[in-house]
Inverse folding.
């Protein structure tokens, strides 16, 4: 069965610190997709990244980077030099290519608080 | 307007009331979704519509009744709800369903409180 685990419920850091949000997933499919979404206090989930199961290259986008490791079924998200505007709840999600209607299976989210 | 718009943003209703949540997308997408976000559970998929046709009902109680008159609009009709139905209801859209690569675009949600 599919499952996404975000073990960190809440993280608090001081501005300019680096922070890594962990995500571990379970799936039996060989073709699947992993996502990260950000939910600021305003409520809407904002898409950050999508990675397919055949592409294990790490990705960097500005201060954001993602480390995908199939060997450990993890897709971790690192924010470098965090800023107050990064404060939000971050969700990792899994979608299987053969899954129901492309349904996203979400983790419970990690609430990140960045203090000035 | 752009993106996915949900109204109302906040709703308080009694258990005997009937109300509706509205979602509108201006992205030209063909698939629309309702998700429920409650405090103690991960985001849960409720319904999926593809080209106005309901393609998934994730065992949602009948007191929630979705309606999709066209690919741009999605409603969630609410009646005789329970206090445990209090949650943030998120609408999302995507170009289509049926593939795991879909990127969903979410609205800001409707915060529902059932008294």
């Amino acid at each position: 069965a599919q499952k996404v685990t975000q073990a960190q419920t809440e993280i608090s850091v001081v501005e300019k610190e680096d922070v890594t949000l962990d995500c571990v997933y379970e799936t039996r499919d060989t073709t699947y997709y992993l996502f990260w979404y950000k939910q600021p206090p305003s409520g809407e989930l904002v898409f950050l990244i999508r990675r397919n199961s055949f592409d294990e290259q790490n990705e960097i986008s500005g201060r954001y980077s993602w480390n995908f490791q199939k060997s450990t079924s993890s897709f971790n998200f690192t924010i470098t030099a965090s800023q107050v505007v990064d404060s939000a709840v971050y969700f990792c999600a899994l979608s299987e290519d053969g899954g129901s209607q492309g349904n996203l299976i979400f983790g419970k989210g990690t609430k990140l608080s960045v203090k000035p | 307007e752009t993106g996915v718009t949900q109204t109302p943003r906040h709703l308080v209703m009694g258990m005997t009331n009937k109300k509706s949540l509205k979602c509108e997308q201006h992205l030209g997408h063909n698939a629309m979704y309702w998700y429920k976000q409650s405090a103690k559970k991960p985001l849960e998929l409720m319904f999926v519509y593809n080209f106005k046709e309901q393609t998934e009902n994730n065992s949602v109680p009948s007191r929630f009744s979705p309606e999709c008159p066209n690919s741009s609009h999605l409603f969630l009709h609410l009646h005789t709800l329970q206090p445990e139905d209090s949650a943030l209801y998120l609408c999302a859209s995507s170009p289509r369903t049926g593939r795991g690569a879909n990127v969903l675009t979410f609205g800001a949600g409707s915060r529902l409180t059932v008294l």
In short: The mean pLDDT of chain A is 92. The CA atoms of residues 17 and 49 of chain A lie 22 Å apart.
